Amino acid sequence: MYENAFNGIERDLRAEEGISNELDYVEQISWVLFLKYLHDLETERQDRAELSGEPYRPIISSGFRWDRWAAPKQDGELDLNAALTGDDLIAFIDDKLFPYLGSFRQTARSARSIEYKIGEVFTELRSKFRSGYILRDVLEIVDGLSFNTQAQRYELSELYETRIRRMGNAGRNGGEYYTPRPLIRAMVRVTAPRIGETIYDGAAGSAGFLCEAYDYLRHDKLTASEYETLQSRTFFGQEKKSLAYIIGIMNMVLHGIEAPNIVHTNSLNENLMDIQERDRHDVILANPPFGGGERKEVQQHFPIKTGETAYLFLQHFMRKLRAGGRAAVVIKNTFLSNTDNASVALRKDLLETCNLHTVLDCPQGTFQGAGVKTVVLFFDKGAPTRDIWYYQLDPGRSLGKTNPLNDDDLVEFVNLQRDRADSPKSWTRSRDALDETTFDLSVKNPNAPEAAPLRDPEEIIDAMLARDAETATILEKIRGML
C-alpha cells in the first residue's frame, strides 16, 4: 500500500512546475511527511494522556493541526468544504503555516526538543509547490499513511531510503547524501555499539549511520529505561547543509526516533582546543565530505592546517572520540599515501594517538556517482597503533547503479575482522615496518597472486603476424568456396 502511495506522490510531483529534480522531490515530500508524522505523534500522546487522566498541551495549535487544514474530516471522509485547495492552500502554506512553525525555534525550551526541530526545519526550507491542486492530491495520499506502529514506520523508512538513494545517484554529489547501507551496516557491526554509549556523526548527511546504529541496537526486549536511552541520549549528529539536515531529521523520525539530536551547524567551526570530556562520544561513524575547502579562519581551529575537508573532519573525530572509544570513518584512499605535509602529519598523529587496527579497502564503484576510491579507517582511542589489519574488498564483479554493493559482499570482511585473520584478501602490517618519514599506509596485498610478467615486444609482434597469416589463409579458403 505504501509503495503505491509513494508512486502516486511521485506522479503528482512530476506535474508540479516548482519541483524539477530528485533533490526537490525528497525535500518537498519530507516536510509533508513530517507534518503528518507530527499529527500522528500528537494524537498518540493525547490518547495516552487521556487514558492516564493527565492534561495534554498540544505542540501545534488547533488552526495549524493537520486535521484542520490538510485533512479535515466529516464522518470519516475528507470534508471538501473545509479543505483548502488551489491558491488558498498555497497562500496558507507560504504566508501562515511555515512562518508559524518556523517561530518554534525562538520559543522552544531546548535545542534538543521536538519543538526546536520543527522550528529549524520550517525556517530552513520553503514550499516549492505552485499548484494548490497538486498539493491537495499529495496531502490526500499522505493522509492515508500511518506512523502508529513500528512495522508501518519501518516500511515508510525503507521507501524513504529508496528515494534518498535515487537522489544521491541522480545528483552530482551522490556521496553527499547517500552512503551505501551495506557498507554502513558492516561498519556498525565492527564497532559494535552498546546501549548506554553515545554515537556521533559530525557530517550526518541523511543520518544513515545513526539510523543503522539505531536499528542495530533496537530489539523487542528493550526495557523502558533502555528505550528512553536510545530515544534521547544515544544518537548525536551535526550537519552543515540545510537539505541534508532536513532529510536526516526525517529519516531518523521514520526509523522511530521522535526528537533526533541533529544540530544544524558546521562541525568544523568547533575549535579542537575547546572540546571537553563532556563533548566526546563512545562511537563515531561517519563519511565526511571529500574535497571542498574550508576558509582560512576555519583551518585555524586545527593543529594540522589543510584545505582538504575530509582531513579536517578526521582531526575533529579523533578529538571528539572518548578514551576507549571506537571509530569507523570513510576517507579517500589517497590519504594512505599522499606525500604532502598535511597527509604525512595526519597519518603520524593518527598512528600515535589512536590504534588504527583495520583498513577496509573498497572497490571502485562503491559510491555511485563518485569517481574516487575509498577506504574505511577503523580505530580506537587511547593507545598507539601496533599492527594494522587490511582487507581488500573484492565482490568479484564491477559495481554500478544496477549492480550495487550488497550485504553478502561484506560478510567475509566482518567475519575475518573479529580475529583479524590473514587470507588471500587480508593481511597484517606491523607499525614498526612503516617508513618513519612518510608513514605510508598504502594498500599492497602481499597475498595477491603475482601478475604474469610482461612479454617482450618482439614476441608480441611475432604473435600478431602469426594470427594475421592464419586469418589470410582462412579467407583464401572461403574465397575458393564462393
TrEMBL record:
Residues 12-84 form the N6 adenine-specific DNA methyltransferase N-terminal domain. It catalyses: a 2'-deoxyadenosine in DNA + S-adenosyl-L-methionine = an N(6)-methyl-2'-deoxyadenosine in DNA + S-adenosyl-L-homocysteine + H(+). Keywords: Endonuclease, Hydrolase, Methyltransferase, Nuclease, Restriction system, S-adenosyl-L-methionine, Transferase. The keyword Ribosomal protein does not apply. InterPro entries: D12N6_MeTrfase_N (IPR022749), DNA_Adenine_Mtase (IPR051537), DNA_methylase_A-5 (IPR003356), DNA_methylase_N6_adenine_CS (IPR002052), SAM-dependent_MTases_sf (IPR029063), T1MK-like_N_sf (IPR038333). Pfam families: HsdM_N, N6_Mtase. GO terms for biological process: DNA restriction-modification system; methylation. Residues 155-450 form the DNA methylase adenine-specific domain. Its EC number is 2.1.1.72. Gene3D superfamilies: 1.20.1260.30, Vaccinia Virus protein VP39. One of its GO terms (molecular function) is N-methyltransferase activity. It is an enzyme of class 2 (transferase). Belongs to the N(4)/N(6)-methyltransferase family. This is site-specific DNA-methyltransferase (adenine-specific). It comes from Halochromatium glycolicum.
